[in-house]
Amino acid sequence: MPETTPRGLTRLAFGGDYNPEQWPESVWQEDVRLMREAGVTMVSVGIFSWALLEPRPGVYDFGWLDRILDLLHDNGIRVDLGTPTVVPPAWFYRAHPDALPVTADGVRLAFGSRGAICHSNAHYRTAATTITTQLAERYADHPALAMWHVHNEYGVPVSACYCDSCAAHFRRWLATTYGTVDAVNEAWGTAFWGQRYAHLDEIDPPRTAATVGNPGQALDYKRFADATMRENFVAERDILHRLTPGVPVTTNFMVALSQCDSVDYWAWGREVDIVTNDHYLITDGRRTHVNLAMAADLTRSVAGGAPWLLLEHSTSGVNWQPRNPAKAPGQMARNSLGHVARGSEGAMFFQWRQSRRGAEKFHSAMVPHGGTDTRVWREVVELGASLDSLSTVRGTRTTADVAVLWDWHSWWAQTLDWRPSEDHDPRERADAFYEALYDRHLTVDFAHPEADLSAYPLVVVPALYLMTEKAGRNVREYVENGGTVVVSYFSGIVDQHDAVHEGAHPGALRDVLGLTVEEFSPLLPGQAVRIAGSDGSELTGDVWTEVVVPRGAEPVWTYADGLTAGHPAVTRNRHGRGTAWYVSTRLGAQGLDALLGWAIEDAGVDARADLPRDVEVVRRTGESGTYLFAINHTAADVKVPLETDGTELLTGERAAGRLPVPAGAVRVVRLDG
Ligand code: GLA
Ligand code: ZN
């Protein structure tokens, strides 16, 4: 069994990507001195260093890396060592230009950025495993080595390549997956538009074609591209396991980022020894701490509930969004501890020292351009001390109240072309339901649609368009056994091949919901419909409506105007010993809150109505005790009721009754008992 915690790390991980190769060696001494001052416990090294480690083919220069690892070890800092396979050197591409990826339009991307890789390319595969072997052999016994950081963020910036090697690899993948070309024809429905293939050799990647291509083919290509990246990860991982047994292997995920939607992290979570995630605040006007909480919950879920590690976030602004605001005083600590509350075994950053050159010189860092007489540095030092006082939370697990079903394959399928409305964004619905649950102070586990749901009193299904029969059965049995579900529109429509389930919509869920959907009727931009509640209340919906015909379900809210007038917008169905809610339009925050309020009542969930909005309360529990994290995102001091007395770990003070949490502050109480 491989280790699941960084070797030799006895405290929470605190540090960041450390790129000493960008600096003269004279700076290194100052780096480690400052790392000690801040309480840094681990750094990630060598992620982009291939060109320095192998300056010419087969000629290695490990001297600088030896010296930096020794220096870090002498200063008690653990090392998360990168395999540099995300950026092969320029000489490699001169020799093997076909290792550069090709877009669906047939454009071969150039060298000069990062992550330009055709993952099917045999030369790349050999070169990547060779440099990985070299590193593993050289550093297997280095005392600083705590963990391996393979590659960097698989799936970005290039999620799929459409070159001829990939075409051949795709055909092999199809042969393994389907066996015969007839099985492919059947799955993809190639009878439509005369796309039938007589032989697997006739099949290409879904390159830019005259118009919309075959959706089954497009969906399978996403699966293939994901599996191909995973093959390369596993190849590196297996070398590392063999040569450095006992050192855990990870690769940094980006689980909740819309820009990284091409990786099935359920599958990847099973391959890594420690799940690690990178998270950056997306400044699009929404509440960033809600998205952060969602990312952390999703990462923990991908880790199967086990502790995971935040491998990158930022001390302040990033530099790759259209506008990159600095973080407010205290926000970095709230962000870092927000991840810890939801299961992270520390808080790491991109990057240690802010670069002077290169594409990311305006991205914040732990040591800013301005050095140590800066707010960011002072907050970094403070955070180091806070994390140090939380050492005993290591190994404990965050406890969740409800589950949200989540599946990358469904997300992929839903974003294919020619759907009923381009305004329907599955990710938007997942975010909205998450936010509504967050506002009721419920901690969310995400679950794969086929996973065991019996531990949850309430399961939310936001726009889960693709559901296998097994997933449909899973939800049905969950409700039959007494569970409560809330299902949002355009769920349970197609199977794993993007084929509509037989019979009326929503094929995978119509029994449990007690209804059929006769037609989808999306709204035009700016259009809204009125919805009347059975209790006299009124709401509006936009983007989407459906002609819902109850077949056992009871209408709770009904469309008051528009094409669907008179049909139910929200229904409730008793099924077995449980209850299934359905909503067929896009409700705003108020409507979602009302809907969840009823479902929560059915499910008997305790929604902590005594907590103010934007005050986050999350628990981690385990052998060392139960820890209550209270994060105050508001500008007012608040008091959080405690179920038992305890000790506040950041201040060292006793806490009883109602815990004062100052504006913008975080408090962590280890509860007595
Ligand atoms: C990603 C990468 C890092 C860096 C940061 C900047 O997470 O892994 O190398 O580019 O983004 O935010
Ligand atoms: Zn390729």
TrEMBL record:
Q: Which reaction does it catalyse?
A: Hydrolysis of terminal non-reducing beta-D-galactose residues in beta-D-galactosides
Protein name (record) = Beta-galactosidase
Q: For this entry, list what GO says about its biological process.
A: galactose metabolic process
The organism that produces this protein has a lineage beginning with:
Bacteria, Bacillati, Actinomycetota, Actinomycetes, Kitasatosporales
Q: What is its EC number?
A: 3.2.1.23
**InterPro entries documented for this protein:** Beta_galactosidase_C (IPR013739), Beta_galactosidase_Trimer (IPR013738), Class_I_gatase-like (IPR029062), GH (IPR017853), Glyco_hydro_42 (IPR003476), Glyco_hydro_42_N (IPR013529), Glyco_hydro_b (IPR013780)
- What CDD domains would the database entry show? A4_beta-galactosidase_middle_domain
Annotated keywords: Glycosidase, Hydrolase
- Does the record carry Cell membrane as a key word? no
Question: Which family is it part of?
Answer: Belongs to the glycosyl hydrolase 42 family.
Q: Which Pfam families match?
A: Glyco_hydro_42, Glyco_hydro_42C, Glyco_hydro_42M
What general EC class does the enzyme of this chain belong to? hydrolase
Listed PANTHER family: BETA-GALACTOSIDASE GANA
Cellular component per GO, a single term: beta-galactosidase complex
Protein source organism: Streptomyces lincolnensis
Q: Name one GO molecular function term.
A: beta-galactosidase activity
